[in-house]
Amino acid sequence: MTITAETYHVPVLLNESIDGLNIKPDGVYVDVTFGGGGHSREILRRLGKNGHLYSFDQDADAERNIVHDERFTFVRSNFRYISNWMRYYGVEHIEGLLADLGVSSHHFDDAERGFSFRFDAPLDMRMNKRAGITAADVINDYDAKRLADVLYLYGELKQSRRIAETLVACRSQKKIVTTGDLLAATDKLFQREREKKEQTKLFQALRIEVNHEMDALRDMLKGATHLLGEGGRLSVITYHSLEDRIVKNVMRAGNAEGRIEQDFYGRVASPFRTVNNKVITPSDEELERNPRSRSAKLRIAEKV
């Protein structure tokens, strides 16, 4: 497969998310989800000669889209380690951070990665192909309870126990190693009118577990909270309720759990103020160009 910046991932809510950063020409910014580099290129376009952008991506494929600019540093790492890497580069404060939490178009379209049920492919689903367990490992090695918990927590599948028990029974006869095996094992569990929606939730749950996405998101947002200086902006695009809830909680309460803390006068003691009280969603024109953006939500907050 030929990979270019244009085909790797179409940037979602491009202008809205970058506008939300309120970029200072000489500021230091971080794009924690580099992907095809669309958002990073727009940030660089708005930076002056003394500004700098650090962009993270743990996927080796993303390196093919690296921007050759002295104001740009690519960090091949999971964004959960943002605090360590900024310390490594001697950066104490940043003016803004952008996160586009969606799975890239490239991952869905690359049959070999196993992210989509459109192709019969190995059940991998790792963002970082160099390390970690695969989706096949989760399905074949987890006991029924642990597997059901994953499907319920990360896929919000109401019949998670039944699905888990079915998968355990199937794997006792033959290991489930491809997306086709998984679909065949669960074929009779979903009603035809909801089949694709339920399959999407199933694949989402496995992907989140494989990549520890919720833990990584919490760690990244905690690091961003400490790194952002006063007036610094946090611009985050989410795609499903689990990650959106965490982002909303951090922006409104300062923690992933949404635990409200108040000062002596009863004022909410949050390190942020929300810039857009109502989430920003793609325009009709963007939806027409890029149907995959339909579930995107943009939230912006400023450090106080």
Secondary structure topology:
Blueprint: H1 5-8, H2 14-20, E1 28-31, H3 38-46, E2 52-56, E3 72-75, H4 82-88, E4 94-100, H5 105-109, H6 135-141, H7 144-155, H8 160-173, H9 179-186, H10 195-211, H11 213-227, E5 228-238, H12 241-253, E6 272-274, H13 284-289, E7 297-303
Q: Can you characterise this structure?
A:
There is one protein chain. With 304 residues, this protein is α/β, with parallel strands linked by helices. It contains 13 helices and seven strands. A seven-stranded mixed sheet has the order 3-2-1-4-5-7-6, sandwiched between helices. Helix 3 links the parallel strand 1 (28-31) and strand 2. The chain is globular and about 60 Å long.
Tag the structure with descriptive keywords.
304 residues; alpha/beta
Brief summary of the model shown:
The protein has helices at residues 5-8, 14-20, 38-46, 82-88, 105-109, 135-141, 144-155, 160-173, 179-186, 195-211, 213-227, 241-253, 284-289; strands at 28-31, 52-56, 72-75, 94-100, 228-238, 272-274, 297-303.
